């Protein structure tokens, strides 16, 4: 391993990741561990230069006070505590609230007290992971479900560097992807990076299963279950695969429940594969925050369009084609979404707006085209900004941009005679319509 590490012990704080980020922003690697890690376990971690004991509001779990084994203080590793009443050694009542003051404080501890090296960077990370993956996998084979999203794409690029053609990627086109996406996956991974890529066009199969299904939950379930089935069929056709690679990232792990915050969120994975397809997991991004995953993708040479892709729901355009999906409306969603993305890119909004997309509802309205009455679908535009996806504000898109998008959709997308802009914040609306 190349990099020095600062360990953050979670003593009931809700802000462990803030601290981890602040340390990493100084160029020093950091990881969060539970309060009851043993001194031996701590000693076994590579290159630990300092320990931050991060207290907070969750001081009692299941009736027992949250504390560390006092032997932690005598490991010969510098410690700094905050908001932890029984702390020994250097202790603060709380971390500074001002980010600049927090950075200064951590800088002093990390570099002056701990003498850590600022050697956390993407080159070292990639070199370390290549070495670790090679050690884990040996000469065996790895399978990856490649969605074309940021996480699985960066995993693919990293594994290609590490193990080349021992990796097989499977990309499933469920017919609900955005315009040009399956083509981009094939171009980047098969043509440019030379990956073993199995491309499965399962659109007909998905659309068949979804025919007439209007309930959003039911739609999501069908898409999820069908995806597992398609992936399973492809996995069974391949011989001698021992590993499944996943784009698990650090927030997936931290958010799936620390010992003091019992918050359980389902993991980022291809869950639901049958037991006889039990693979060992390869998760090379499990230590990275999202922006670090992007930096890693860029360092590996992936195109910006892939690395900075906006969030996209798992069930894809299926939840933006409201009610029972029809081919006509699905095409209207796909084409109008492509126009919106093109125009946001032209106006530079793709770099500032968090998420933007179009929705086509399952009702029509009256209009006039070519001097005749028509009865066609509306397209709803949505563009929002958010920090944590818990709340969201509507982007105040400049009027001329909205007019240009509207005119193009009305002219270029068949079956559409009206364009609306969704002005609702979250709450009370959600980001997606279904
Ligand atoms: N169409 C697809 N083809 C192949 N694999 C897929 C597809 N959709 C999803 N997956 C797999 O399932 C995982 C979780 O999917 P989800 O839609 O939750 O993605 P995500 O969290 O945005 O991650 P990513 O950035 O990799 O898309 C993906 O990382 C990928 O491994």
UniProtKB/TrEMBL annotation:
One of its GO terms (cellular component) is cytosol. Its EC number is 6.3.5.2. Pathway: Purine metabolism; GMP biosynthesis; GMP from XMP (L-Gln route): step 1/1. It comes from the Bacteria. Coiled coil: none annotated. Residues 120-309 form the GMPS ATP-PPase domain. It holds the Pfam family GMP_synt_C. ATP binds at residues 147-153. PANTHER family: GMP SYNTHASE [GLUTAMINE-HYDROLYZING], GMP SYNTHASE-RELATED. This is GMP synthase (glutamine-hydrolyzing). It comes from Anaerotruncus massiliensis (ex Liu et al. 2021).
